[in-house]
Amino acid sequence: MTVASPPPIRVLLIDGSEIFRRGVRTVLGPGLLPAIHVVGEADRVADGVKECSRLKPQVVLLDVRLPDGDGFQACRQILTQRPQTRVVMLTAHANDDFIYDAVTSGAHGYLSKEIDAASLVKAVRDVAAGRSILDPDATTRVLRLLRQGTAGAAGPDLSILSGQERRVLSLVADGLTNKQAGAKLGLSENTVKNYLVNVFEKLQVKRRAHAAAIYIQQSGAAQPPAPRG
C-alpha cells in the first residue's frame, strides 16, 4: 500500500526586500520532501497581516523592520487573529532588545538571515512541528538578558503556580512541545494544555514564549524537582 505524502507546509514571507523573498522562495522551492509551499508574500505589516488571514499559512517568516512598522507589531497582530500560526523572525538584526521583543511578542523563533539553506529548511519544519527555535547566538544573548533582569520587570511571582504547573512551565521554557512535555511527565497532551491555560491566567500572559521568559528570568538555571514515577 502506498503511503500518502503529508500535505505541504504552508509558508508566508513578510519582508521588505523582493530579492530576499525570491531567494527564500528558491530555498523552499519544489523538490523538498516533506514539501514546503510558499503560499504568498508581503512587504508591509498591514499587507502581511491581511495575507496571513486570507492564506492561513502554518509558518510565517517575518523581518523585524518593515516600511510601515516593525515585525513585533505584525507578530502580535497575526497571533491575535490566528493563534495557531507559527511566526519566525528571519532578520539581519541581532540586537539583544530585538531578540527579547521577538520572544515577548509571541514569536516562535528568531533566525539570522545569514542562516544556510539546509538550516532554514530544517527550521521551518521544526517550527511547523511545534518546536520553538532560536539560533545558538540568539539563545545565549536572550537568556543572558533575561537572567540579568535587564529586559524589564520580573512579572508575577512563580510561587503562585502549583508544583505541577511549574514542572510543565520548566519544560516549555526548555523548548518542548505540549506532546513532548506530556511524555516526560506522564500526562496527555490535552492535560498539559490545560495546565498551561492555568499558568497563562496566573502569570497574566497570553503566549507560551512570554511565560517561558518569566520562568527563565526568575528561576535561572534552577529547575523544579522531577515528578516521582
The CATH architecture of the largest domain can be named as 3-Layer(aba) Sandwich
Helix count, per DSSP?
A: 10
Given helix and strand content, the structural type is alpha/beta
Strand numbers in spatial order across the main sheet? 2-1-3-6-7-8
The parts where pLDDT drops under 50 for at least 5 residues are: 150-154, 221-229
**CATH topology term of the largest domain:** Rossmann fold
Number of strands: 8
Helix content: 40-55%
Q: How many structural domains?
A: 2
> Rg to the nearest angstrom?
18 Å
If you average the pLDDT, what whole number results?
82
The largest pleated sheet is described as: 6 strands, parallel
Please give a handful of descriptors for the protein shown:
globular, 2 domains, Arc Repressor Mutant, subunit A, Rossmann fold, alpha/beta, single chain, six-stranded parallel beta sheet
